[in-house]
Amino acid sequence: MNIQKYFTLSILMSACIYFMSCEKDVKSSTIEGSKKEVVNQTSKCPNYILKEKDNNLNISVLLDLSDRIKNPKTKLKDSAYLSSLAYAFVNHVKRKKVILLEDRIQLFFNPEPTDERINSIAEKLKVRFSKGTSRSQLEETLKLYSEYPSQLYNLAQEDAKIAGGYPGSDLWRFFKDNINDYCIDECHRNIVVILTDGYMYYDKTVMKEDNKTSYLTPRSLNALKLNTSNWENDFKTRQLGFIPANKNLNDLEVLVIGITSQNDNNPYAKDIIELYWSDWLKSMNVKNFKIKNADLPSSIEKVISDFINN
User: Fold this and answer.
1) What share of the chain is helix, strand, coil (3-state, %, to 5)?
2) What top-level branch of life does the organism fall under (predicted)?
């Protein structure tokens, strides 16, 4: 009789433990489910888009429309670079399933040109592909980026003649005031492509803090007297460079194309410009960056493709 009671009691205890365990699992599952729901509610991205974040391109092109564009070779090279960028972008989109399309490319200047025709072209070059977009727009995108850049540069040159000179390009202020709002999105892999000679100057954004500045010109670079083989150590000792314009760019990648030296008196000028840029991008916690000189379009095409497909 005692044995029978013992077995009965054991069965009852096992049943209780089992049901208590099940209840705990249900509660745990409910809690985890509610957590996931909260995550979804705080994100503007659907889960299927957020999971593909690194495969969703958000490419912003920042054009330096300063006096660098007076050089006819600059216009030709920049136009070819933009065409290569569009080609890499379209090839990326072609490899995706239609339902997963969430990719875009857009164009910016700072300051905004006074000629509305330039802004109109920039608007046309703003392209977005989503799951409701027809793939026929792929070829249209390639056409837009092969035809419009040269027109844009011609208009910018006309605009400069009317205004009595090129206004410069306020790249520093764009990184401070606009880049977070215009170029960074939580649903995407965010890439900024900057076409510039590497010099930075805008008359309304001229600042200096110790040996760091918001500008760099051929004249100011000459004044640094970094024209010996020991220039890099001197650069670091004097703590030269650009003033950081931002700190929160850890979800941004930057490709700088077009670095050139307008300084025949300093054989290290191009290297100095590149160090200015690399130190600046590091100081702003940019996730990934690459800096290239104004090389042949056929060479830069591979650089662009590799960067986009990284």
Assistant:
1) 55, 15, 30
2) Bacteria
Taking alpha carbons only, the member of 176, 215, 175 closest to residue 192 is: 175
Instruction: List, in sequence order, every residue forming a beta bridge with 255; answer none if it has no partner.
Output: 193, 290
Are the CB atoms for 213 and 243 separated by under 8 Å?
A: yes
By the 8 A CB rule, do 151 and 120 touch? no
Ranges of beta strands (E only) in the chain are: 57-63, 102-109, 127-130, 189-195, 208-209, 212-213, 241-242, 252-259, 288-293
Residue showing tokens 């290239």: 292
Coil vs helix vs strand at 301: helix
Cα–chain center distance at 175: 11
Give the separation between CA 131 and CA 3, rounded to whole angstroms.
69
- Taking the C-alpha atoms of residue 68 and residue 63, their distance in angstroms, rounded to an integer, is 11
Task: State how far Cα 4 lies from the chain centre.
Answer: 75
pLDDT in tens, the chain (310 residues): 444 544 444 544 554 444 444 444 433 333 233 333 333 446 688 888 889 999 999 999 999 999 999 999 999 999 999 999 999 999 999 999 888 899 999 999 999 888 899 999 999 999 999 987 887 889 999 999 999 999 999 999 998 888 888 888 999 999 999 999 999 999 999 999 999 999 999 999 999 999 999 999 999 999 999 999 999 999 999 999 999 999 999 999 999 999 997 777 899 999 999 999 999 999 999 999 999 999 999 999 999 999 999 8
Distance (Å, whole) CA 197 – CA 221: 14
Distance CA 63, CA 156 (A): 11
Measured distance CA(69)–CA(262) in Å, rounded: 13
Closest CA to 200 of 181, 179, 180, 221: 221
